[in-house]
Fold this protein.
Amino acid sequence: MKTKNLMIYPNICFIMAIVVCDLVFMFGNVDPYIIKTLTSALFVLMGAFNLALALYFFKGKESLKCICLFVGLVFAFVGDVLLIDHFMYGAIFFAVGHICFLIYFILLQGVSWQDGLLFVLISVFALLLIFLYKGFKFKGDQALVIAYAVVISLMLAKALGNLVTKPTTLNLVLFVGAFLFFFSDLMLMFDLYTNISPVFDYLCLATYYPGETLLALSPLLINFKDTPLKSAKVNDENGQPKADKKITEQPTVKEEEKPEKQEKVKEIEKPKQQGTSKTRKTAKKTSSKSKK
């Protein structure tokens, strides 16, 4: 119970602090260097805390894979800080962070043909949006945006591929986190390269930090990566869980043994009955002789 509380309550505090800082960043008049650095540092600290718990309590090879995830969170943190004044360097650090997330997803589940198909679909959608939408004004950043779109599409496709091939709680959390990250970058692209509405800036911040938070939370679920989303238990007509097969098989064995035992008892009783019938016959003969 103490171990469970140690895992849950600090994460709740991290989540609440990230939400508060994110809201202040969106609606408050605070220096972006201070509030953005603080908010991004919180999800890095959350990832470090959960990584330490996973390595200490679980001590398995699966927990070691989370190191790659943590490195990705650190690159995202540096990218956040650089993005304020040095967009190109910030985008490069974010791209490296996505590659770390991608490696983490591959270490969890390998590579499948579904991953390639999903990557083609997602990247084609992103590239068509970049090339066909006339409202973008990239100002010489188009090559950088295209390269970044390919990298983040690959990361999202792998997260979705893991969920499709193996629908577990861990894969669901990772996919939602990766999707929110992808969506926030999409909103950032509209905010930076179009003059449509400032709402894209709010949508970017409202989805980016929750996505990072879910990714930072995932080390706690690493040892439950094989836990399915739906329970395998089946209920009977009354809504009660059915008994285990081993328990239900035992009466059937006894019921099969009963006829065999009854046949053996009958075989044993037959000679007894025959013996008693013979004694009755001899008794009748002696009684008839005595009468004579």
